């Protein structure tokens, strides 16, 4: 292995594993790091300052933070199908062989020609899209937007399917904790000791939060020791689950939380059988947000120069990763906490160029430290940064009193104070409240069951974090019903925190508020001048806070500047609405297992595997796989196969699996009365052993569904639905039973999956069935007439149900057996029918035969047709009430000029028909005024040797014989068709009754 | 005259391959066992007749019928709550068949045979709960879902009856799933996907134990 110098790595210290060196590449250059690094810390250790180009102006950018709030250091991680754009270098864990590339630059990061955008900066102000690309409007989608997207942007998507898998899981607990800093760990201790089921989510791979960088003393031991001790105790508690690499990103109704676990993001690719990421839905009785706080920048000219970094981030890189972002550091702070970075820098042996403190007073202790270490303390503010893609060179300071100073440094640490992470507490439209002493928003209300603790609640001292966290954990456990005792809380001292608010330092040059969206202080001032003063308008007009980081480092500064220019206070200016997710979540994680062939569950008919053996072509109908046709060797296309199947049925015998129909047992003394109310026709007078076709309406009078229902016993009907409506009809009937007609004694059970059901059709149907049915059963027309239904015995000992019903128009039976015999039945039908040339047929032939017979199906039962439209008005009983009766009588539903079902055939017998064509009067110009209907179902009829169809046409049945025009702009076809009787085949029904 | 054989074929017959699946370098964390031959009868009280049904059930099975989401084990049947005023009777093939039960409950209930409408899958093993957490929103923690707990719920958008049976001799919990037959193969693949990382041991039993 090549040993690569890590020029900016301290010789010792940090939480990295120096015994586990790793190689990685950035823009093709091989670099080295250690286990325990992030990509950002490893880049810093290698002296890399320039990591990206900004969104709009292509300005050189470095690493600003050390966490998930990072706006700048976005990279494309991995390559090929796994390439993942906009990945934060600050949270990407280093692994051996990691490949990262900078994004939004051309041709290279150092020489980005798109940086020419900076010259046009005066026109790229807030709202410039709207102002510049107004005319002509049609250019927006085709020209302007694609061009803007090319010039301004983020990384590139992989462009091919993600090879990794994701899944989703549920978890349940009493107390859910977000964050493993001092508050989170103390909360977990208290809740866990009390006996609660606890889940603690930590987005980092290491536990401890700010303790990992800032250390401190807890219970008189160093923080690292306290963390280890605490984790050891938590591990002994039975129901405490620590989930690292897991970000809690959303809060939903009923105490449900969303979390994303990066299960294997820290490896080049997931191990076999494992997922890349897992989406968690966590149901918690109580939750504690101990998500900490985010240090905020100060807005000044050049504040986006590589090498300008949050003061706390600089501490993290030095203390946790032993990586030095700079050798000669300047510090700009308006608060006490910022000074901790000076202490860290000194401990690490870095030079301190100067500390610029914007507060009027600097403590004697700090002055003593400065004197001892030999660096100046400048009272004032940074007003400018001299530097570029190689980083900070010089800092201009405006001293209190008006004088200016220059400081040479290669890094600038900035602290503008801390903003509690109020996102999770605000996701139910909560608005945080302003707290003056820390000049920050803190949670005011929270979703039910949630509290904030520690820094997330505005308590920045270590002692306060521990005590708030512990108290919250104990209280949450108690209110979740746990009665154990929480024991002794961990204790620590509080650090001093004094802050003089400072948001924006006026100066020459661009001063960035939102680094990721390139929104400057002057953009906010412009928005105010143009009247976009409301924070919600400000956000949308300038795009402040709308980038992938959702403004974690910029929102508060932005509205503070708006407050200043509009002469209001910050609380008066208010915050925008907080919405999940807290961090970007891959769509793949939301999809989980549901992709490709697993996009949805599939249902298989009892004859599925037999049909597959026959080489059937399957079609997806809803969740079902249905055999569409059964091709035979030598057949050149589907039409040839389907035509053969239809002819075989019409001349001999065939069968089709119709198990997909919904099947419902309707039981009880009032079953008949119940059916009378849900169907338009009467079922209470149906004789036992008979079947009847029924039609249901919706309450609005439109047709809902149809099917045959048989009476198998006095108090038992067997109802069938269409395949598509099987579920909805069951729900509808349950609603009728439970809500509309609770007085009826009727019970419903879905038996759709209990029965394998096949339609056996064709003139030789009886011949076939006689081979398979017990000889004692009478299948003659007298012994088993049309619309008969009863149980029969089959040869070999099992029982079946036979229904003499026909969808094809042929002599037909439907035969059903308990589903586990379905496979045997289909094989036995083949055996029994061999000498009759029995032919299995699929849904296409089924469809052809029903169109030939003029039976309506899905395309006609489409939710806009009435019984009369379908030619079934006579079925509507006038002797009883039924669902939809009253509304079906509405004027428009009974109008004489409604579009009704009628047959069509092309005047040119060779012409193919297509469904969807509009019907207009012959000789008229196609258009909405002349639109008289449309073609609903079409097929090639082998029986008539031409294409035929069913159409819905105004007054269609009165216009039989009329030639009309079919207009099909979608396919560019125009042709004439003749309106005809919708029953093309055997109109008097002799065949099915014979 | 041709003779016909009527071989019963489970909806999982094609998909189930007995043996090991998924991660092999670990002790299988999930055991899946399909039971192929069983009687399953849906019993729904007629209007206002729950008390009569409950009493008839007590006579017939020797245990109370479940009126809350529970599965109650009698010596030769499990009575599994499936909704208000209704339950399923699961027994060995040939034990509590449709016809005699219809007789026994003719006064108080409506019955539907569901023996062929479902597939029965037992899930156990050290990772059973972890795996099921990927599929089910039900909290299966031992204190929340003890032996005999039952739910009519959905797994991967597929309706199931889920209940906890008696523990295995080695103390592992057993979760039973009744899934609609036409969905069974699809759900089976989903379960295998969810379980693969823990290592799976797959078996089937002809008869209900």
Proportion of residues in extended strands of chain A: 25-35%
* Cα-based radius of gyration of chain B, to the nearest Å: 18 Å
Q: Which CATH top level class of the largest domain in chain A fits?
A: Alpha Beta
Name the helix and strand elements of chain B from N-terminus to C-terminus, one letter apiece.
Answer: EEHEEEHEEHEEEHE
Number of domains of chain B: 2
Helix content of chain A: 10-25%
Fourth-level CATH superfamily of the largest domain in chain B: Probable tRNA modification gtpase trme, domain 1
Please work out how many helical segments of chain B DSSP would assign.
Answer: 4
Uncertain runs of chain A: none
- Oligomer state equals heterodimer
How much is the radius of gyration of chain A in Å?
A: 38 Å
Helical content of chain B (DSSP H or I, runs of 4+): 10-25%
What does the model show?
The complex is a heterodimer of chains A (994) and B (209). Chain A has 24 helices and 49 strands. In chain A, strand 46 (933-941) and strand 47 form a beta hairpin. Chain A is of the alpha+beta class and 994 residues long. Chain B is of the alpha+beta class and 209 residues long. Chain B folds into two domains: 19-36 and 117-207, Gyrase A, domain 2 (2-Layer Sandwich); 38-113, 2-Layer Sandwich (Alpha-Beta Plaits), CATH 3.30.70. The model of chain B has no long low-confidence stretch (mean pLDDT 96). Classes of the chains: A alpha+beta (994), B alpha+beta (209). Chains A and B meet through strand 8, strand 30 and helix 21 of A and strand 2, strand 6 and helix 4 of B.
